[in-house]
Amino acid sequence: MLDILSVRGLTKQYPGFTLRNISFSLPKGRIMGLIGKNGAGKTTTLKSMLNLVRPSSGNIEMFGHNFFENEEKCKQSIGMVLGEIDFYKHKKLSSITAVTKRFYRDWDDNAYQKYLTAFSLDPEKRVKELSSGMKVKFMLALALSHNAKLLILDEPTSGLDPVSRDDLLELFRQLVKDGERSILFSTHITSDLEKCADDITYIKDGKLLKSAEKSKFIESFQHLRESSEDTALSLEEIMIRSERSSYDI
Which UniProt keywords apply (predicted)? Predict the structure, then answer.
């Protein structure tokens, strides 16, 4: 199966924190959840992958190309939603879109209009009138409207109500259905992973604990059970028990 994304030995050093030797691969047509508690290194991983912060070392391949040598070309096929990005609060959504679309050769106005309708977004509204959940939906509409083959999303369901979250996760499943698009998204909401992730990458204190297909990921942590339970651990239990233990892989 062709990998749409390959991360090898990604390292980023900050005073007081180091992201160490992160490696994983994401095949075409799959959804990977990047999980870890706040401060574990999820956002640093995504930013370093995209060269938004310069990694100390490591190699990134996207679509079979070295990302750092082909950054502009690769980014034409990436849709990004990073949680801390905000827009000028008094601008209309239509004005922001008019600027954004100029950067993408394959911008699709029909797709954009479809997502505006699906997300109940009014292009004449101003950013200041949007809830946090609606801002996420607007950023997703932009990310999905230029034929992106890889979606990289940082906490995309944060701030959404349960119904909107489930709708978004269902949209993720539909987006990868044809096998041509993949999604990497970070989250601390384990139910999101249980509902839609094919693969899970788990980071703790800047180090990779495990990256595997979801069922194999869960199996690998079964020894964390505290009794002779017969049932498998949930993802939430895995996170809680591994975070309070010294367990490492």
Answer: ATP-binding, Nucleotide-binding, Transport
Classify residue 163: in a domain, yes or no: no
State the DSSP code for 233: P
DSSP 163: H
In terms of Cβ atoms closer than 10 Å to its own Cβ (0-12, 13-18, 19+), residue 2 is exposed
Categorize the per-residue pLDDT at 249 as very low, low, confident or very high, splitting at 50, 70 and 90.
very low
- Domain membership of residue 165 (yes or no) is no
Residue 60 sits in which domain range? 1-77+150-156+182-238
Give the CATH number of the domain where residue 70 resides.
Answer: 3.40.50.300
The backbone region for 98, taken as left when phi is positive above 0, alpha when psi lies in -120 to 50, beta otherwise, is alpha
Checking if the pLDDT of 223 tops 90, the result is no
In whole angstroms, what is the distance from residue 157 CA to residue 145 CA? 19
Q: What are phi and psi of 177, to 5 degrees?
A: -60, -35
Residue of higher predicted confidence among 243 and 139? 139
Please, where are the H alpha helices in 83-143? 93-100, 109-118, 132-143
Measured distance CA(129)–CA(81) in Å, rounded: 19
Which of the four pLDDT bands, split at 50, 70 and 90, describes residue 122?
very high
* 127 occurs within a structural domain: no
Q: Is 60 contained in some domain? A: yes
- pLDDT tens track for 143-178: 889 989 999 999 888 777 888 888 889 989 998 998
pLDDT band at 190 (very low <50, low <70, confident <90, very high): confident
Q: Could you give the number of structural domains in the chain?
A: 1
